[in-house]
Request: fold
Amino acid sequence: MTSPTPDPQAVCSPVTSSAIFIVASLNNGADVAQKVRGWCADIAGLTRSVGKRVPSGNLSCVCGFSANAWDLLFGQPRPASLHGFREFGVEGRRAVSTPGDILLHIRADQMDLCFELATQLMSALDGAVTVIDEVQGFRYFDMRSIIGFVDGTENPVGRKALDFTIVGDEDPSFSGGSYVLVQKYLHNMKAWNALSVEAQEKVIGRTKLSDIELDDAVKPSNSHSALTTITKDGEEVKILRDNMPFGRPGAGEFGTFFIGYARSPQPLEQMLENMFVGNPPGNYDRLLDFSTAVTGNLFFTPSADLLEDLAER
Ligand code: HEM
Reply:
C-alpha cells in the first residue's frame, strides 16, 4: 500500500488581493544553518497566529529553498530536479539568474496581514539571512496585470492545479512538494502604451477588454500565449501562476512579479526558452520588447509536513 501524499504548503491557495515576495540569501556563520532549520518548524505556527486574527483574510505562506540552500541546510537526500536557475536568452533579452536562497510567498486579502507575517518571519530569522529583494504586490482592476490584460485566466484549477504543481510518486521522498520560479520584470509602459490595442492583443494573444483568446488563424506564433502553451506526449502541460503588479508611479517604475509553480522545473524552463530564445529560435515573445527580467530564481517548496520535519535534519 502506498502512503498518502503529504499535505502541500499553500501552493494552490485562492487568489488574494495582496502579496509580499521576499528573496533572501543565507549569511555565513556557524549557527546560521541551525537557526534556519529551527525557523522552518515555526513558519506554520506563525502563519496561524497572524491569520487567526482575521479569519476572512485568507493569509497563507509558502517557503522555498534554492539548490544551494538545500545543500547547506539539509544535505542529502535532495529533491530530484532541484538545480540552480538556468539562464535563457541572448544579450539584451535575457532571463537572468540572480542570488537568492530562500523564498517567502505571503498572500492575503489585506496587506496588513502580509506585512505582519513578513515582519514576524523576518524577525525570527534575524542575523541568519540578508534580504536580496522584497516586493509588495497588489491585485489590479479585474485581475489585470500592470500592462492592462487579465492575468491568470488559463491557470489550472481544482484537482488539475494539484496534479500540475505537486510532486507525487516520481520522487517519493519529496512528494507533496513543488518547484517554483520567480522573476521580477520591469515594463517600459511608455512604449507599451504607444501600441494600439490591436497590436497589444497580438503581443499577448488575447483580447484586452474581454480577455478572449485570439483565434488560431490570427494569433501570432510569437505571442505570449502561443509561446507559453506547451505540450508533452500530445497533452498540454500547465503551470500555476500568481503574478502580482507592483510599482512606484512617482519613480516611473511599473512591474510584474512573476511566480509560477510546477511539478518539475521542466515546463517552467521550456516556457522561458520559448519566450527568450524563441520557438523556433528567433521567434521570441514580443512581450519582452517591453519587459526586462531583473531577477530570476528557482526554488523547491517542501510539503508542509517535510517543512516542519526539516528542523530535525
Ligand atoms: C512579463 C511578465 C509577464 C506578464 C505581464 C504576463 C502576463 C500574462 C497574461 C496577461 C496572460 C494571458 C492570460 C492568462 O492566461 O493568464 C499570460 C498567460 C500565460 N503566461 Fe504570462 N506573463 C508574464 C510572464 C510569464 C512567464 C515568465 C511565464 C512562464 C515562465 C508565463 C507563463 C504564462 C502561461 C503558461 C500563460 C497561459 C498561456 C495559455 O495557456 O494561453 N508568463 N501571461
Summary: The first strand starts at residue 18 and ends at 26. The two ends are 27 Å apart (CA to CA). Residues 111-124 form the longest helix (14 residues). Residues 145, 147, 149-154, 183, 185, 204, 206, 224-225, 228-229, 239, 241, 243, 256, 258, 260, 268, 271-272, 287, 291 surround protoporphyrin IX containing FE (CB under 6 Å).
